[in-house]
Amino acid sequence: MKGQQGKKIFLDGTFVDEADAKVSVFDHGLLYGDGVFEGIRAYGGRVFRLEEHLERLFDSARAIRLQIPLSLEELTNAVLESCRKNSLWDGYIRLVVTRGKGDLGLNPASCPKPTLFIIADAIRLYPASVYERGLRLHTAAVRRVSPTALDPAIKSLNYLNNILAKMEAGATGADEALLLNEAGYVAECSGDNVFVVKRGELATPPVSAGALSGITRREILRIARDEGIDVVERNMTRYDLFVADEVFLTGTAAEIVPVIEIDGRTIGTGKPGSLTQELLLRFRALTRSSGPLIYSAGEPAAAQAAQQQ
Ligand code: PXG
Question: Could you tell me the distance, in angstroms and rounded to a whole number, from the CA of residue 252 to the centre of ligand 1?
């Protein structure tokens, strides 16, 4: 297992060793998936779009009536401090807030204090080769959870829907699952948003189709608009993907990944597309030039962290 030797975990207001970072079996995050989370990336000693991630976390929490025990400013500092404590330069930050420890039974009223923890580590969603050769998708029979049941805009701890879809895809030898909504329109993948390029136009399903309002998705839409590319959010069927010139996925963990095959059909030329690659380069440049700095200039830890990566 990764990171066994002494990650420092921010847990309920203090930093503890990984071995001591324990949550109760009575925590409703574990018992009922009652909680919310964020996955954030650090690039070159800066935390990318930290404010947007924290805003989304607060929105998710508000939607489930969960009071985050820290202010936006305190949480910002806790994330940056987590990075410093773990000498993170490039990496992944997982922020989780659960309903907290309570009695058995669904009632959140039995949980007086939310549990909050931050893990600063690394993540690799797909093998490196996938970014060069492209990824194979399989449409899952499992549908995206309906917004009328649990709005996918809430980044909750209920990922079983996505996990089941991912397992289905894995069983067919595909790298990732494509999820449709109840009406049969494309929603997103198990942990990424989906984009289509056709005749120079860039399209992605609207959030109302069951897609998370991904931070990377927003970034790609912004970059494309700045580039003067026609951008549209509209409902799409699998047909739109099958006949696309290019398809790619976006996500904090995944970054930007070309798709070359869906349900046995070759997409475009069967190689990562040129617009996908251009957007990836633009996105990479942006990640290295924006976001709050983890280390102040000249801080010895900064050089040390950079060297370790
Ligand atoms: N859709 C879903 C369902 C997600 O969970 C995205 C899209 C992409 O959104 P961002 O804001 O990251 O561009 C996500 C992202 C993890 C993990 O273990 C988190 C996600 C995906 C995969 C792994 O922290 N969330």
Answer: 6
Q: Is the Cβ atom of 175 under 6 angstroms away from ligand 1?
A: no
pTM: 0.94
CATH 3.20.10.10 residue window(s) in the chain: 128-272
Say if ligand 1 is within 6 A of residue 188 CB: yes
CA distance 196 to 249: 9
Q: 128-272 maps to which CATH number? A: 3.20.10.10
Q: Where in the chain is the domain with CATH 3.30.470.10?
A: 8-123+293-308
What is the b/e burial string over 25-34, where b = at least 16 CB atoms within 10 angstroms of the residue's CB? Answer: eebbbbbbeb
**132 vs 76 pLDDT, higher one:** 76
Q: Which CATH number fits domain 8-123+293-308: 1.10.510.10, 3.30.470.10, 2.60.40.650, 3.40.50.2300?
A: 3.30.470.10
Mutation pick for ligand 1 pocket among 119, 212, 286 (CB with most ligand atoms within 8 Å): 212
pLDDT exceeds 80 at position 190: yes
pLDDT tens column, 205-256: 999 999 999 999 999 999 999 999 999 999 999 999 999 999 999 999 999 9
Measuring from atom 19 of ligand 1, which residue has the nearest CA?
A: 39
DSSP letter string, 68-132: -SS-HHHHHHHHHHHHHHTT-SSEEEEEEEE--B--SSS-GGG--S-EEEEEEE---SS-HHHHH
